[in-house]
Specification:
Layout lengths: L5 E2 L2 E2 H23 L6 H8 L3 H7 L3 H24 L6 H18 L1 H10 L7 H20 L10 H22 L7 H25 L2
Antiparallel strand pairs: 1-2
């Protein structure tokens, strides 16, 4: 694409991508300082250091910007979890510890993003579908995980899906309560206790699967 202009060594597409990332970062900066009520196109543009017209070049409206910011945060936590369990031995305690520690670290280091995913999006009609999609993604991941500890790892079993959704729902509620201060736990104790509690349903799947064959 020899006709594409470059400024400062960056192509038009690179400048566009960089501006889009700045706008999404601005959303999270505002969430950290002002909460959801602080999100307006004008404030996002000012925080990102661009004209409001550039916001509309990248996003349809504020709802579109919020949705794509939600997707960005969801992709980030998903990547952290996948990285955390990569190359770990097939031990349920070790893997669960890595998963919950990644979630807890994300909540501690970027609470504004965690709240946006867990609490701010709850009941939000614009973000509801995306929140459900993230929940479904993690439930599918958990279903593959728990199948690894069944006698027959290829068995579909409705109990596997039930357990996976139960675990994801419980983890979501636990991290939400921890973020808002309802659960008085240190990070390490939270992870340790979650692992102990979650191993129970996973271990019970062996019996449930055996009883329903």
């Amino acid at each position: 694409m020899s006709g594409e202009r470059t400024y400062g060594g960056a192509s038009a597409q690179q400048r566009h991508d960089e501006r889009r990332e700045r706008l999404i970062r601005a959303v999270f900066d505002l969430l950290a300082t002002d909460g959801t009520t602080g999100l307006t196109i004008r404030k996002v543009a000012v925080t990102a250091g661009v004209s409001p017209r550039y916001v509309y070049e990248d996003f349809t409206d504020l709802d579109d910007l919020r949705c794509q910011s939600f997707d960005s945060a969801a992709e980030e936590i998903t990547g952290l979890v996948l990285d955390a369990v990569a190359d770990l031995p097939p031990d349920p305690r070790v893997q669960l510890t890595a998963v919950f520690d990644a979630g807890a670290r994300f909540a501690v280091e970027q609470p504004h993003k965690a709240r946006f995913l867990l609490a701010d999006s709850f009941g939000d009609p614009v973000l509801a579908q995306r929140r459900q999609r993230v929940s479904d993604t993690f439930a599918v991941g958990f279903s593959f995980y728990v199948r690894d500890y069944l006698p027959d790892p290829d068995a579909p079993g409705p109990a596997v899906e039930l357990a996976a959704r139960m675990l994801v729902g419980a983890a979501t509620e636990i991290f939400t309560s921890w973020l808002n201060g309802s659960l008085k736990y240190s990070r390490q104790q939270l992870v340790d206790d979650m692992v102990d509690l979650f191993l129970g349903p996973i271990n019970a799947l062996t019996r449930i699967h055996h009883d329903t064959r």
